[in-house]
Each structure stands twice: as C-alpha cells, then as structure tokens.
Amino acid sequence: MLQYILHTIAFQLIFLLVYELFLKKETFFSYNRAYLLLTPVVSFLLPLIKIPVLQEAVPAEAFVMLPEVLLTGGKTAAQNEIPATAAPETIEVSWWLLVYGAGLLFSLGIFFQKYKVLKELFTNHPVLLRKENIKIVEVPKSKIAFTFYETIFLGSDLSEKEREQILSHEMVHVRQRHTLDLLLFEFLKIVFWFNPLIYIYQSRISTLHEYLADAGVVKNVKKQEYFQQLLNSAFNTEDISFINQFFNHSIIKKRIVMLQKTRSRSISKFKFLIILPLMMAMLTYVSCSEDQVRSEEEKELTAQEKIERIEAIFGDGTNLTSEERKEIQEILKTVSSQDLEKYSKRGQKMQVQNSPSGTGDFPFAVIEEVPIFPGCEALDTNEARKKCMSDKINAFVNQNFDVSLGKANDLNGINRVYVQFKITKNGTVEILGARAPHPALKEEAVRVINLLPEMQPGKQGGENVNVLYTLPITLKIGE
Q: Which residues, at least 6 apart from 95, have a Cβ–Cβ distance to it below 8 Å?
C-alpha cells in the first residue's frame, strides 16, 4: 500500500509539473480543465495496471527466496517462514491506521464546517428569482458574489451594473458545472488528506474556472469595462473551497493578465501530447515493479490458485501440447519457487522445459540445477543443495554481521533487512538492492553479502543462468 501511495503522489507531481511548465499559460481553458480533472484520477489507476508486454521487456531471470536469517545476539536460526509473533509490525500498522483515521475525521470535520456555513446561507436568505432552473439568492447588507452548483449568491449592496456583469460571470460557472469539479477535489482531500498535491490541484482548477467564466463574459462585454469592474469591486468572500467566488482577491490580477493575453495558437495544442510518452513511461515503470499492491493473504491465495491451475494442466507430465506448455510457462512467470514448493503436490518434480522454439526466455520458477555453495558439491539433489546453501549462508551471515550496530544506533525490537542479490552466470555475487529500517543496517547487510564466496552458477536446460535471491535478515534487539 505504501508503494502504491508513493507511486500515485509521484505521478501526480509529474503531471502537475507538466501543467505548470507547458500548459498553464495557454488559453485552451477547456483542455486544461480536462487535464486537471483526468490526471489525478489517472494517477490513482496507473499503479494498478500491469501490462505483460512491458513486463516481458525486462530480461528474465530466476527468483529464489532464501529462508530467513535470524540474528539474536549470537544465536542462529533459519526459518522458512517469518515468525508469527511479529507483534511490533502489527502495532506499527495499527498506529499508521490510527493516524490516517484521525486525519480523515479532521478533514471531514472541516468539510462539514464549510457545509454548515453554506447551509445557513441557503436557509436564512430568500430566493430572489429563478432563471433557467438557476436560483439567485440575495444576501442582505453584503457585496458577496459566488456560486454553488445551480445557486448564485449575490449581495444586496451590489450596484445594478455590478450585478449584471457578475451574474453573467456566475452563469458560466453554473452552466459548465464547475461546482462538481471542486466537490471531486473535496472528496479527494478527505480521503487523501495527507497528499498536498490534491490541494494544489484544487487551487489550479479553481483559478481555471475563473478564466473560463471571464472568457464567457467578455464575449458580450467590452474588456475594458470588465477590467474596471474587477479592479473597483469590493472583495467580500466566504472561505469555502468548493464554491466559485467572483471576488477572489488573490487571483484578480491573474484573471486580468489572462484576459489581456493573445489567444494561443492552435499548434500549441500539441503540447498536450506530451502526456502520451509520459503515461507510457509510468506504465513501464509500474509493470516492471517487483512489488505488488496486494496483501500477503491475497498473494498467498493467488499463488495457490495458479499452482492448482498448473497441476490441472500438467496431469502426469506427458503428451503436453505446445499451447499447454505455453500456458504453464506464462503462469510460472508470476509464481515464486517458494510458493511452488509450498502448494504443489509434486514439488520439485513438476518442471517445464523450454518452449519448442528453444529460446527459453522466461523466468524459471524452478531451477533445474541450483547454484552450488562451496562445500555443497558432493550433494546430488537440488533439495539437498538448497538446504546446504541456506545453512551455509545463514552461518556466514551470523558469523560476519555486526549485531552491535542495533544498539549503537538506538534500535529496539524486531528490525528486518531485505537484500536482493544475483548469482550470475559466472558464479559471482552481485548486489541488486537492499531495504532496512536504518542506513547502518542496510550498509552492513550489503557488506556481508558482498563477502560471499564465488559459487557454481545455476543451470536451466544445460546453460548457465542468472539466479536472483532475496535474503530476509531479522535482527532482534533488546530481547
């Protein structure tokens, strides 16, 4: 979930930067409105889209999850599953939920406070007249002017000339349903209250609404008269973010500048095409991302269903058609060897050979010959070599990892470090990445894995292949 949120915010930031740099000063107000409405929604959808074609563009390698290494001040333990008693993680998630819930309630409170102010205006002031299903409400002793959906609020102290021009302006807001745009962002502000970009989006589209309304008015009114009206008007406003206000002092100058601006040339519309390669780049990134936006329970259920499907197709392993082989290969691309061994009735016996074309360019969920750690050469089976390698890496990490770093950096409880490394076709170890709750633990984990000796490379179809490993290391401190 955290990665999904970060992806969403990053994509929205990129879209906003494109708007600020290339589109903001153009007079294509309707296009800009569509851009500001669609891009935040698209940003929520893009991280959920996984395109197989883009995933296959990344070179395929074999993935193996090693058993967890448990460091407890000198004691060693290798566990095939993360301990069920990892209470600190559950507490941490609960705290995040509590913070989110508190923010959500606070945002709802602010929204209902604004709604209360608006409701009082509806309740306490009479409808002056109705025009084209539009209600005009007069607010006594005020020069207020704003719109909410199909209702226009006008202060009684406005002159007749002011009222005429303002009414023309506000009618554009009503006809183009600008209130719905603002309510969309109000909803997003409540649900994603922690995302500052939503507030920026709402501010930008609110300004754009004024440009659209001004452009509609000056079709029937001289620009100079309208400029004078904007400059001479009193600036009484209601601080409600989902209404369209005529007297918004902060954007009056921007509105006048935009009204004086020469209409953008049609060729400038091609600037909007920049979002196409931008979206393709985003889709490529999320499609090739290794982390899936799913809970562990969903992952486990999905893996089990996929393996049941493989076994149903596999049968006794004989007389498989090319279509069946291809389907099995496609499923294996998304299933780890750990899940295959956990759920498959056949375990290591269920193996799928390369496609008839002989390319073999798919990720191997089960390696025919696993990499061999020095000292494990005498063992004959993959299973025995895997266990030997796991035990030796476990002992190696326990022997070389500086467990004193935990206390030295004031860390407590359970601290998990994940290291991804590759045993290459040449048998060398290559670090791909690491995650840890503290930089010192990350650096130490990378240092230790870099010390691993050269190994005999893994093989598939008689050829050396790269094998990706993820090693979880748990450091228990203060227990």
A: none
Instruction: Answer whether 0.70 is exceeded by the pTM.
Output: no
pLDDT tens per residue across span 225-266: 777 777 665 444 455 666 666 656 667 788 888 888 888 888
Pairing, β 413-423 against β 463-465: unpaired
As a whole number of angstroms, the distance between CA 129 and CA 125 comes to: 12
DSSP label of 454 = P
Residue 400's closest CA among 437, 447, 455, 441? 447
Give the pLDDT confidence of 13-46 residue by residue, as tens digits: 999 999 999 999 899 999 999 999 999 999 999 9
Neighbours of 432 (CB within 10 A): 13
Instruction: Give the residue from 292, 273, 397 showing the smallest Cα distance to 334.
Output: 292
H or E stretch at 283: helix 275-287
122-131, 164-173, 234-243, 295-304: least confident range: 295-304
Phi first, then psi, for residue 241 (nearest 5°) are -75, -10
Q: Which amino acid is at 253?
A: K
| DSSP-derived pairing of the beta strands 467-477 and 68-72 | parallel
The whole-angstrom separation of Cα 170 and Cα 15 is: 29
**Segment 298-340, tens digit of pLDDT:** 444 466 666 666 666 655 455 666 676 667 666 665 665 556 5
Angle at 9 between CA 187 and CA 36, to 5 degrees: 60
User: How, if at all, do strands 244-245 and 413-423 pair?
Assistant: unpaired
- The counts of H helices and E strands in the chain are 16, 13
Q: What is the greatest pairwise CA distance in the chain?
A: 99
Amino acid identity of 251?
A: I
Rounded Cα distance between 349 and 341, Å, is 10
Whether the CB-CB separation of 68 and 445 falls below 8 Å is answered with no
Distance CA 24, CA 31 (A): 11
Q: In the beta sheet, which residues pair with residue 136?
A: 129, 152
3-state secondary structure of 342: helix
Q: Considering Cα of 99, then 100, then 101, then 104, what sign does the dihedral take?
A: positive
- How much of the chain is helix, strand and coil, in % rounded to 5? 55, 15, 30
